[in-house]
């Protein structure tokens, strides 16, 4: 893990999740492999191991750089800009 300048830009407290699954996957009839939560807005999307990679699409559309695992027992965060676990 490294110190990421984008962590300092995140809202405090962390936003509540907007859903409990990837709503984009539901819309297209797909199933998420792993869930990720945007730490800027709280949107929950599927990871890059899922067929549609909605978390990455959310970053590309919104510019929201940091997300974290939304899987039980996991708390790691990923910064798309830095391309690393933070």
Short summary:
This protein has helices at residues 23-28, 54-62, and strands spanning 35-38, 44-46, 66-69, 77-79, 84-85. The chain has 86 residues and is of the alpha+beta class.
What does the model show?
By secondary structure, this protein is α+β, with helices and mostly antiparallel strands. It has one domain: Herpes Virus-1. The chain is built from two helices and five strands; from the N terminus they run αββαβββ. Strands 2-1-3-4-5 form a five-stranded antiparallel beta sheet. Strand 1 and strand 2 form a beta hairpin. The longest helix has 9 residues. The chain is globular and about 35 Å long. The mean pLDDT is 94.
Gyration radius, to the nearest Å? 12 Å
What are the segments in which pLDDT stays under 50 over at least 5 consecutive residues? none
Beta percentage is 15-25%
Give the overall shape: globular
According to CATH, the fold-level topology is: Herpes Virus-1
The beta-strand count equals: 5
N- to C-terminal distance: 5 Å
Strand order of the largest sheet: 2-1-3-4-5
The CATH architecture name reads: 2-Layer Sandwich
String of helices and strands: HEEHEEE
Core attributes:
Herpes Virus-1; 86 residues; alpha+beta; 2 helices; 5 strands; single chain
How would you summarize the topology of this molecule?
Elements: H1 23-28, E1 35-38, E2 44-46, H2 54-62, E3 66-69, E4 77-79, E5 84-85
Antiparallel strand pairs: 1-2, 1-3, 3-4, 4-5
């Amino acid at each position: 893990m490294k110190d990421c300048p984008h962590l300092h830009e995140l809202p405090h407290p962390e936003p509540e999740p907007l859903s409990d699954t990837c709503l984009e996957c539901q819309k297209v009839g797909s199933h998420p492999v792993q869930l990720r939560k945007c730490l800027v807005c709280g949107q929950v999307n599927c990871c890059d191991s899922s067929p549609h990679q909605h978390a990455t699409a959310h970053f590309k559309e919104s510019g929201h750089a940091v997300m974290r695992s939304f899987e039980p027992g996991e708390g790691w965060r990923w910064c798309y800009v830095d391309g690393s676990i933070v």
